[in-house]
Amino acid sequence: MVIELTGQGSRPGGRSVSVKDVAAAAGVSLGTVSNVLNRPEKVSEATRVHVLRVIDELGFIRNDAARQLRAGTNRAVGMLVLDVRNPFFTDVAQGVEERLGEHRRPLILGNSGQDQARESTYLDLFEEQRVSGLLITPVGQVLPRLRRLRERGTAVVFVDRRAGSREFSSVSVDDRRGGRLAAQHLVDTGRRRIAFVGGPKGLPQVKHRLQGAEQVLEHAPRAELRFVETPRMDAAAGRSTADELMGLGKRTRPDAILAANDLIALGVLQSLTLAGVRVPDDVAIIGYDDIDFAASAAIPLSSVRQPREELGIAAADALLEVIAEPGARVRDIVLEPELVVRRSTAG
Amino acid sequence: MVIELTGQGSRPGGRSVSVKDVAAAAGVSLGTVSNVLNRPEKVSEATRVHVLRVIDELGFIRNDAARQLRAGTNRAVGMLVLDVRNPFFTDVAQGVEERLGEHRRPLILGNSGQDQARESTYLDLFEEQRVSGLLITPVGQVLPRLRRLRERGTAVVFVDRRAGSREFSSVSVDDRRGGRLAAQHLVDTGRRRIAFVGGPKGLPQVKHRLQGAEQVLEHAPRAELRFVETPRMDAAAGRSTADELMGLGKRTRPDAILAANDLIALGVLQSLTLAGVRVPDDVAIIGYDDIDFAASAAIPLSSVRQPREELGIAAADALLEVIAEPGARVRDIVLEPELVVRRSTAG
DNA sequence: ATTCGAGGTTGAAAGGTTTCAACTACCGAT
DNA sequence: ATCGGTAGTTGAAACCTTTCAACCTCGAAT
Q1: B135-151: string of b/e by CB count within 10 Å (b at 16+)?
Q2: pLDDT tens sequence across B223-257
Q3: What is the pLDDT of residues B202-213, one digit of tens each?
């Protein structure tokens, strides 16, 4: 059998090699080539080997758009995170990617940056792409859109956040518990004026961590809790909050700061150190997430560890389940956080 | 004109709303709907408004697979980085995403994790998806594949790495210069036994930074440079390298460590501190990249700053140029690194 | 010798969009 | 009254794959 070669996989006309070309070159029908690609067991050994060789020689690469159009489904999964620059989310994404990779499903990572408009743009994109699944840590009011996505057949799973109603599966970490762990630790080590820093307060993660802290404070008669809201959850927010707090009189300024995530905590730490405030002597700091950088900070940072990779893997599993069986029971997986004590809260 | 509504954008048959449905409901032809979507200026005001209303009411969302199939081009751009967990790359990606966003182009972020197999898998994916452009920081020998991609019409731009031949545009930072800056600083501050830590040595970034350091050492008669190769560029690699180095006799162990990136430097710093080695008194450490976390490290880390966001923006611009005009002149943009001195190399 | 079934293979239809040549309606100019 | 031109609209073709009912070929069973 003669195989017609046409250069490096590109054809004179500029068009790229299609199944039709492969079929012609291999002397089989279109359907057979497709079978080789998608149901190799239906094809005789000899044909399969031959066709595969031709595919390789012509440099044929399946056009995924056409595949998707006909098959009606995109294998890719979309993931929308609050902040790609926060290692917490890249660690989660890493876990997701790993598990999805085992199922030959690519991950399209989108970054809302805590911005509703960007979140919406990404949802448009994912919807146009007809992704088979969506992992989302929502910012705005997206429930109606998510419902619509699901009606279209897209599996949706919440990450790092429970779905309010029991409509969607979710994988999260117990934020109230985390808040309690952190606050209890501060109270136990003798802190009395605690500032909780994070925001915006609309974010459930922030709200719940704060609620957990409040629960603890209710049973600590002498201690008080103040909530300082930030517009974002990054180091810059931490820095400016710290500057603000240190402007207060020595008697009213907090003796402990509970940050809603480690980035904020690191920002706070930087500013305090710069201002000559001693950590933990004058002010204790505890963060949240326990990203890798927390341990290597100027003053190693106490934090509430979230099982990041595990979260990602569990989320991927939950999503794969819904993709495989859209009617599957809604799951509400809640993982446990863990207190990690380091120098920033010692004594 | 009556508009037939069929629920929340989903239709009884489970099929989703297509242009055909919109056309029917709006009482215009298919082509007109398409024009409204893609060439609004060709359509009369009245029709446009009407069709847009119908689109909204039916909840029509363009099927991108079909669009792509017919138009032959995917608007999305792929980006393949060495390590998503390294803030350097997410910062670059951030810059890329921002600029691409202005052009309504989504970014598909892939993570090779310095692994050739994964890199190859992602290239398959991008090729199947027919992305219009690819930003890549390569790991393995991918030149043949990249050439093929380009022949297929995909724009390719190297990021953080020059393309050896002048075949592809690239946006990078002068790594030799960065290596010189770091090494010169160490020599100037009296260090004599310098260890360069990074790898694998096949990575051009590592190779060039090392070469830069070597150039400096040639003119520093009393000083010596040793290369310690690591399999990866993360904190773990830094930690184990430090452990190893400290096993050496006090007279042969280095008095300065030049890490090929900040993650390694932070890992080294952690291990040294743990082992009771004083930084910078006993051993100075300088990193590379100047990620945000470098400044807030236990001992604030000296580093060689790379203009990360700028790199991303320039890369996006270069790519957009090639996409717009495939025959465009090949660009070789080289940005300048900058020495940032902090405590880890003080005195 | 005929029938049956299994294992392979075929070819046409379908999927939703964009493109483009062809057409219509209308206005202004002659 | 006719012509030319412009603005707007139409509908069929094309893009490439997957799917599936129909078909073919053998060998085994009767």
Answers
A1: bbbbbbebeebbebbbb
A2: 999 999 999 999 999 999 999 998 887 788 999 99
A3: 999 999 999 999
Residues of A in contact with B293 (CB under 8 A): 266, 293, 296
Q: Are A234 and A263 in contact (CB under 8 A)?
A: yes
Chains A, B: CB contacts within 8 A come to 131
Q: B191 CB contacts (<8 Å, ≥6 apart)?
A: B223, B255, B256, B284
Residue B40 Cβ under 7 A from any strand C atom: no
Q: What is the chain B residue with the closest CA to A272? A: B296
Residues 37-76 of A with CB under 7 A from strand C: 42-44, 46-47, 66, 69-70, 72
Would you call A343 exposed, middle or buried from its count of C-beta atoms within 10 A (0-12, 13-18, 19+)?
A: middle
Tens of pLDDT, residue by residue over A277-287, are 999 999 999 99
Q: How far is residue B292's CA from residue A18's CA, in Å, rounded to a whole number?
A: 47
Strands in chain B per DSSP E: 74-81, 107-111, 131-136, 155-159, 169-173, 193-198, 224-229, 256-259, 284-286, 303-305, 332-335, 338-340
- Give residue-wise pLDDT tens across range A114-167: 999 999 999 998 999 999 999 999 999 999 999 989 988 899 999 999 988 889
In chain A, the largest separation of any two C-alpha atoms, in whole Å, equals: 91
Cα–Cα distance for residue pair A173/B80, rounded to 1 Å = 30
CB contact under 8 A, A151 and B10: yes
pTM surpassing 0.70? yes
Put simply, the chain A residues between 36 and 55 with a CB less than 8 A from any chain B CB are: none
Nearest CA in chain B to A86: B87
For residue range B284-338, list pLDDT tens digits in order.
Answer: 999 999 999 999 898 999 999 999 999 999 999 999 999 988 888 999 999 999 9
Nearest to B69 among A69, A85, A127 (CB): A69
How many Å apart are A329 CA and C17 C1'? 36
